[in-house]
């Protein structure tokens, strides 16, 4: 059994992960259109990871015999001026998602829902890793800007994700 408020919060988190997946997909297309194939490839992989996070949460909900309530995924916000503004947004989104995960974790703990708490530990660690990775990309983008030649080197580096 799972408490109704924890079930609802898990369903909300599924939606948040799917929204992140949708947003990253839109960002990827936007940057690809501007010629940044490496950043675009990185974001496509990130989008797929966010969808996996949603799918994993769906497994957590259904394994507990709770109702899955998928919600609408709003259209992502529009155009960005380049990789720098995209990654400023990515970091904001990740920080917001970390806060959501922490709130959900605290709620599960307060409710004595140890199964949910343990399942969410993976998400807590994942957010630490994701924030650090995105912060690093952003630091490098802030250092070189996204107008000069160095950004194309960075673009090539970003495209290596998933190739090893
Ligand atoms: Fe789902 O890991 Fe980022 O947001």
Give your account of this protein's structure.
The structure is a single chain. Helix 1 (4-33) runs antiparallel to helix 2, helix 1 packs antiparallel against helix 3 and helix 2 (37-63) runs parallel beside helix 5. The model has no long low-confidence stretch (mean pLDDT 95). The chain has helices spanning 4-33, 37-63, 83-110, 114-144, 150-158. The chain has a single domain, classed as Ferritin, CATH 1.20.1260.10. It contains 5 helices and no strands. The longest helix is centred in the last third of the chain and has 31 residues, at 114-144. The N and C termini lie far apart (42 Å). With 164 residues, the protein is mainly alpha-helical. The protein is elongated. Residues 17, 20, 50, 53, 94, 97, 126, 130 line the site of hydroxy diiron-OXO moiety (OFO).
